[in-house]
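#struct-help
A.M.: can someone run this one for me? Single chain, 347 residues.
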Amino acid sequence: MSDDKKFKTIILFPSDKNGCGFHRTFVPFNYLASKSNYDCPAMFAFMFDLNYLARADYVRFQRQVTVAQTKIIKEYKRVRDQMQSKAKIVYELDDLVHGIGAHNILAYQFYTKTRRNNLIEIFKMSDIVTFSTQFLKDFYAQNFGINNSVVVPNFLPKFMWNNLGKRDKYNKGKNGKLRIFWAGSSSHVALGGDLEFLVPLIKKTANEFEWVFFGTKPPGLVDLVEFHNWKDFYEYPTAMDEINADIAICPIADTEFNYAKSDLKVLEMSAIGLPCICSAIGNKKGPYDLVPNLMTVENKVDAWYQAIKQMEDPVNRMKYLEAGQTELNNRWLEDPKNTKIYTDIYQ
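D.P.: on it. Structure tokens below:
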């Protein structure tokens, strides 16, 4: 057997070059290719190079849902079957498409019956479906009979995050004010979104705390918060670390869409040395309710204010930071047990 026969080829079609495309395609599969016998080319154009498809072991599609994309995946399957190729079709999803709220700026991409039907059709064409959370796996199994699925949790790569959060971060605000950090995209800040319930608290305490936002300017709060623009994803960890916040907040609305979310934000904040205050939602179904010993709080202004005041105590900060970092230490991409989740799928 020649050496090239030992390699597995996974043709990747990422959803984007940022966000979930970065976290769940580029980083993990580049790492897989660097440490194991995998060839993992990523493509943004749907190409039908029959020779290349013939030698592929897997073709992985990520979050494609349009009519055109569905037709292309169907054509890949037809060509594969006609060629009697061994390539398996894998489909990857990390959001509850059937539960996306109308307030979400990405809703137009998914919020039609046609696109939701396309998703189910793609699931059924696929040999394997990978989800980011157990909630997603259970939802699509129970509601649509999708049973060919595997959970691949979100992991953080040590090479980007492990040397951050080492220095003393606390009491960096003016006059000893607590610096409260939030990071996120514009999908969280619209009316009805994850931050809406906190807006009155931010306005009320703008002089008591330093509110620091990274990535998105919250409407109506621009003059009350410190703001930092998005960075390239490879610069993102260091940029957040250098903001020198005291604590982080992870608020999410009580919606089915958020029940399906992962705890990625807690992993990131823990990596830069920040204890988190997180939303408790969904009768213990929410992503932060599933992590032991985090500070989880109902989405009520008074409850969040009291939680923030508790975080002024350095003993409490350390207690809740340790809870987040305990989870983080189980979720490094480079941990062999986590890498094995990928290699068990792509055998």
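A.M.: thanks! The longest strand covers residues 8-13.
D.P.: also worth noting: Residues 19-35 form the longest helix (17 residues).
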